[in-house]
Each structure stands twice: as structure tokens, then as C-alpha cells.
Write a structure and sequence with these properties.
The structure holds two protein chains of two kinds.
Chain A: H1 9-17, H2 28-36, H3 40-52, E1 56-63, E2 71-77, H4 84-93, E3 97-105, H5 106-109, E4 123-129, H6 133-146, E5 151-153, E6 157-161
Antiparallel strand pairs in A: 2-4, 2-5, 3-4
Chain B: H1 5-16, H2 26-34, H3 38-51, E1 54-61, E2 70-77, H4 83-91, E3 96-101, E4 113-119, H5 122-136, E5 142-154
Antiparallel strand pairs in B: 2-4, 2-5, 3-4
Helix pairs in contact in B: 2-3
Chain lengths: ~170, ~160
Amino acid sequence: MRETTVLDALDRAIIDGLQGDFPIAERPYAEAAHKLGTTEEVLIARLQNMLEVRILTRFGPMFQIERMGGAFVLAAMCVPGTDWDRVLGIVNALPEVAHNYRRESLRHLQGEPTSDNSADLNMWFVLATETPDGIGVAVAAIEAASGLPVFPFPKLKEYFVEMKLEVLG
Amino acid sequence: MIVADEEIDRRLILATQNGLPLVSRPYHQIGEQLGMGAEEVMARLSNMLERGLIRRIGAVPNHYAIGYTANGMSVWDVPDEGIDELGTRIGGLDFVTHCYHRPRKLPQWPYNLFAMVHGGSRTEVLAKVSEIAALLGGHCRAHDVLFSTQILKKTGLRIV
């Protein structure tokens, strides 16, 4: 993955203008290109290129798979540094673990002592299972294998989810 | 053989979750691949959009590559009564990409409102977090920001 990539005005217009509302039509690229002031061929070539260099991770429908009956739950653990690799191996080996991030509290990063408990929840992952029951099974499996508690944070209410971000700078 | 609607939708998801074909008539190509007409592909995708099964169709940028090198999960302890109104206001800020009410885990975790903030640097993220703090005012009893310091796994959410 390139850290910095030079994007020209058309690339930016494509990224900023095409994060949603892609037409469902016979020739959708032609329609979208017209709005962006370019041609179907150029738009397809630009998308192809931005996917290849990983400026775009994907181009297509974003599904909300929960609506198909599956379940997604954010969960976190306090993993001691000395035990990090062992626990990471256990968690990442589960196919139900979709995303996993190391997160550190601001206070922790600023070097304050970690008496505050939230600083200790340092491994955050999303469990994705075909049925809601699968979440509890996965949590129990991680707890049994690691010997550490897993804290599930199911969403009680969603106020907003929109991963549309404009190109910065 | 009669194939249930749900199974057809599942096949459509499988065929498109990695992306749309980059060809002039992508829905026709998907139809050929699945043995159905392009009209049916388009009708089903439109229907899934209406039902919310598809959030949107378009480009998914790599946040790092377009400048968002810092992301902070800001977490807030606000009164449960009134959290919906506060959550809706925080979710309406243009720099918040996800906003949820989640359960507290007392005594370890007093926070019940989660708002994800993206920015070009941690300083920028913190400035945005301050805006949230100002907006919450006296409703906020405690808050924290957890920065992602490492991606440990990223497979994407998909059906198999």
C-alpha cells in the first residue's frame, strides 16, 4: 500500500462523487461519467487503476449483511503486553473475527499511568457470525482458549453509519 | 427447480461483494454469470437498496491512501435517558462516520456512546473530539479516545 499517492482532480472527483448513488442502469459507468464530465472508458480505467494501487479497496455494493440474518458484534479484551502474541494468535485464528485493531487510550499514549480501566481494553475486534447465537459461541471459545474475559459491545442503537469521506488536503 | 428469492439474493451478494465488473454493462455480465437476465439483476439490486440490505453502491476508498491516517474511537458516558437525542446530534456531525449506543461494562467501562472520528492526524482528531465535547456540554460525565495503533486483521464482512 502506498502511503502517499498523487491524485489528480478527476481522481478526487471520482472518489468524492462516487461513494454512493452509482446508477443501476444498462450502462451505469457511462451515466456516472457524464455527471463527472468524463467518458465511460476513462472512468472505468481510473477505477481500475485506483483499485490496483489500493486507493480504493472496492467498487460496488456495500451490503448490510445483518439484514440477511447474520450478526455483528464489536468486542474488546484487555491483553497484557507479555501475553499479546499468544492471545492475538488465538483471536485471529477464528474465522468469525472480521476486523481486529489494536487501540490505545489517549491517556495511555500520552504516558499517563493506566489506572484508568478503559486504557486497558486494547484489542478490539468485530465478530461476524451467520446467526445471532454464533456470537456467544465465539466469545466463549476465545475466553476458553485465552483464559481472558471478552467484553461484547452489541449495538443498542445505531445513530449514523456513513463511511463517506472526502479526499483530504 | 424453483429457487427461493432469498437464495437468488444470496447468489447476487456472492457475485458482487468483491466488486462490480468494470465493464460497460456490468449488470448484464453478472446476469450471464448467474443465469438470469440483466433486468432481473437490476430489479433485485434496486429492491435490496430499498430494503436497506445494500447501504449504497459506489467506491470504497482506503482511508489511509486518501489522507485519513488517524482514527479515534471516542467514547462518552452520557445519561441513558436522552442518549437518543444526543446520539442523533453527534451522528449528524460531518466528521463522525459511525455513532452507536452500546452497553456500559461497569465498573471497567462507563461509556455508552461511541463515535468514530477520522482525520489527517491525531491532533486533528482531538480537535474534532473537542467539538463533540462542547456539543455534549454538561451531559458528558466522562470520555476517552482510543486511537487505533495497529491493524491486526482485516478480512472485511462477507458471506461465504
